[in-house]
Amino acid sequence: MTTASPDAGLRASSPAILFDLDGTLIDSVYQHVAAWHEALLQSGIAVSVWKLHRRIGMSGGLFLHALQREIGREISPEQQATLTQLHAEGYVRRLPEVTPLPGARDLVHYLAERSVPFAIATSGAGRTAARSIELLDLQVEVPVVTRDQVERAKPDPHLFLAAAQMLGVSPMDCFVVGDSVWDLLAAQRARALSVGVLSGGYGREELQACGAYRVYADVQEMLDRIEEIGVRPAV
Fold first, then answer.
1. Residue 120: beta bridge partners?
2. Judging by DSSP bridges, how do beta strands 26-27 and 16-19 pair with one another?
């Protein structure tokens, strides 16, 4: 999905915004955790739930690499593929539990009404992300970059670089909004400023340590204080 490129005057007055999805706009982190936990149990692998939560938001490949260290043995490529498929199926079953986070719909509508350029960049696959994005009830065409479209996901910067390119702006003219350390590390590597939200379960100090310029409870608080990231409120 694409949007028309904003004019030069608008770019100078308002930054572009690149949103993470899970835990930032959509309350889905724990559904992903539960889906991974179920997939692992089905494959005979026991891992504490809290350890899975700490990895949500990073690329699936790195997630499974870290998992091998946790369980002390290698996971074959075939088993990795099976785990990925089981996770996707488990998450889709939990979609009825998933809702937009407070302020998410209001924020994206606010930005669209003011022609502030924004995009969504998620480490999730297109097949699962599309259903979550539908919950935002977007009224305009918005660029969406998923794991399927880039070589590497977070904490590599590829998702945010691709999203900025789709908007026709430099990453240095963007704010990245994310809930995890993986989002903010990717933002740093893309040379974008970052804003953290606590709605994914990470602590304020963790997000600040990874470079967050501001940290808000959720995107509702970000909307309430939108002038702090250079977006002009309605007059």
1. 19, 144
2. unpaired
